[in-house]
Amino acid sequence: MKTVTEFPRKVVEFPNMGIVMPDGCRLSARVWMPDDAADDPVPAILEHLPYRKRDGTIFRDQLTHPYFAGHGYASIRVDMRGNGDSEGLMDDEYSEQELQDACDVIAWAATQPWCNGNVGMMGISWGGFNCLQTAAKQPPALKAVISLCSTVDRYADDIHYKGGCLLIENFGWASTMLSYSSRPPDPLLAGDNRWRDLWLTRLENQPFLAPLWLKHQHRDAYWKRGSICEDYSAIQAAVLSIGGWHDGYRNTISHLAANIEAPVKGIVGPWIHKYPHYAAPEPRIGFLQEALRWWDRWLKGIDTGVEADPAYRAYVMDSVRPARWHPERPGRWVAERVWPSPEIKTQEVELIPEGSKPAIVASPQSCGLAGGEYFPFTFGPELPGDQRPDDALSVCFDQPVLTEAIDIVGAPEVLVRVSSDRRQANIAIRLCDVHPDGASELISYGVLNLTHHNSHEFPQALVPGESVTARIVLDQCAYRVPSGHRLRIAVSNAYWPMIWPSPEPVRLDLSAATLTLPLRSLAQGDEVMFPTPEAAAPWITETIRAANSERHVDRDEKTGIVTLSITDDFGEVRDLEHGLANGSIARETWAIHPDDPLSASGKTHWTQTLSRNGWSVRTETSAEMRSDAQNFMVNARIEAYEGEKLVFERNFEESIPRALL
């Protein structure tokens, strides 16, 4: 990545600009802008997050926001209320208060003497979500959005209920936010006499969100609010949507490109959950240059040619050997003028010939351990591995060896006719690329709670022994299967630890199954090019403890329990400008007995540290989730230390009735 230090306009930074909301709550913003913006006003770009601008997202902020400022923008990175250096309290993700605050910041920015009245909003993950939801509120000054790794559906395509199945990440992410939001503001910004009071008030009111999310097990009004798929026409700002094939949010780009009436373009690369100018697997792209083209057109009125860009640009990945991490993925960029593309044809493959005996699907509860993380994040061993261990626990439909390569571009689907011996059952379907030696690489997957086969809002119990028809839509993908390989469709009724298991062991009888593949003519090379990555000067730090990620699967031969243990040590670094050192470690264990779905358990333990010149704080947060046939049981604990002194402790414990999931 090329570091740019000379820009068209000289940049000035305000590390703690206060923005007071109508209710008096002061939000803290880090703002970069041209030093002459008061004389020559510029558009503003907002990123509105709970992830701490002082020490949380500072690495990517340093690369990105000064770059925009140097090209004639006021780039505003706001800590949401209740987080980082801002006042107030947070009670949920994407709350009405959060979105109203974003609208108020946009209105505030538009009226500043250094702003020309036009505002854009951007972000990845949480910030990608809330910029779309804020755009649906139609604040008058908001003209353009760049949303990365986001969703249009808070229920069925977020970390909560994929296909109506309870994702383990629902609990995992609640545990992560409990830790993230447990940290205090920086005393240098909040004041020596004030930071502690803000911190303790925050801790006393901090929510543990897993019980709240578990109380909404169907697609009710709670999830519809903020799901922009409820009314795509509400988005009137121009939207650039970007995502990665190794991220959990790979479907949004297609949904937005196909449904938004405002100007919209989509880009999908081979990346994990990161901005694409420093993401992996490579190749990276010049994201900041692409973003400037978008901003310049919609915020400055400059003809940059973005309107003539293809509607959908995607990286078709070549087949590789299965591995938990790929530093790069060979492949090529393809471009579709419109999306959905008339150039993509569908091919149907009958998996169970008419008149055949039903295939019996009765997977051990530990099936799924090769699936990887929902959204890989650490540049470490989080990608799906060789699928053969899971394939061996599934019913597999292997296709003939390919005599010529195929490009799969889009969302594969499987239509099944299936019966269950229980009132509730899950089904997981994986599309795999099987190498000549048997190695199995995951292309895409989909899961469905079969009680939701007609509706996520109004599920219906299955009648044991009675067949239903269900369509399982797999995630969007762009993948070349080479000649000499074969496709495998693997079907299981467990996918641990991606989804929480059914309350009882289940047998599915699969009497019919048809695969629909979206196929595109083979691309002969790159059909579109991107500039090489550029960024502003990186964050200057001193490493105190190096980062490290570990992942282990253990089977207790005495008890039969299979345990996945994950340790992500994000390391510890010291900022060489303001001196604040920060470190964090996340630990997770996911355990289950192959024969007992009620043995499933998840445990998390996070440590966060902050220190400077003899001052130090530490938070320890832990959480656990289990279930019986009737209830989910979750508990959590926060401990906060100043130095070695325990200054705060709090326990959460709740049992939530288990709906007919």
Give an overview of the whole structure.
With 661 residues, this protein is an alpha+beta fold. The chain is 15% helix and 39% strand. It has 11 helices and 33 strands. The strands form 5 sheets. It has a 17-stranded mixed sheet that branches. Strands 26, 27, 28, 29, 30, 31, 32 and 33 form an 8-stranded antiparallel sheet that branches.
Radius of gyration: 25 Å
Based on Cα principal axes, name the global outline.
globular
Instruction: State the major sheet.
Output: 17 strands, mixed
Query: Into which percentage range does the β-strand content fall?
Result: 35-45%
The residue ranges in which pLDDT falls below 50 over 5 or more consecutive positions are none
| Straight-line distance between termini | 46 Å
Mean pLDDT: 97
Structural class: alpha+beta
Helical percentage: 10-25%
- The total count of strands amounts to 33
Number of helical regions = 11
Domain Xaa-Pro dipeptidyl-peptidase C-terminal: 292-539
InterPro entries: AB_hydrolase_fold, CocE/Ser_esterase, Galactose-bd-like_sf, Xaa-Pro-like_dom, Xaa-Pro_dipept_C, Xaa-Pro_dipeptidyl-ppase/CocE
Organism: Mesorhizobium escarrei
Keywords: Hydrolase
Notable traits:
single chain; 661 residues; alpha+beta; 17-stranded mixed beta sheet; eight-stranded antiparallel beta sheet; 15% helix; 39% strand; CocE/Ser_esterase
Sum this structure up briefly.
The chain has 661 residues and is of the alpha+beta class. The chain has 11 helices and 33 strands. Strand 6 (115-124), helix 3 and strand 7 form a beta-alpha-beta unit.
Blueprint of the fold:
Elements: E1 2-3, E2 11-20, E3 26-34, E4 42-49, H1 58-70, E5 74-79, H2 96-110, E6 115-124, H3 126-136, E7 142-148, E8 161-162, E9 165-166, H4 169-180, H5 187-190, H6 195-205, H7 210-214, H8 221-224, E10 238-244, H9 252-259, E11 264-269, H10 287-300, E12 312-318, E13 331-336, E14 345-350, E15 359-361, H11 388-391, E16 395-398, E17 406-410, E18 413-420, E19 426-434, E20 440-449, E21 468-473, E22 477-481, E23 486-492, E24 508-520, E25 534-535, E26 541-545, E27 548-555, E28 562-575, E29 581-593, E30 596-612, E31 615-627, E32 631-642, E33 645-657
Parallel strand pairs: 1-25, 4-5, 4-6, 6-7, 7-10, 10-11, 11-12, 12-22
Antiparallel strand pairs: 2-3, 3-5, 8-9, 12-13, 14-24, 15-24, 16-23, 17-22, 17-24, 18-21, 18-24, 19-20, 19-23, 26-28, 27-28, 28-29, 29-30, 30-31, 31-32, 32-33
Helix pairs in contact: 2-3
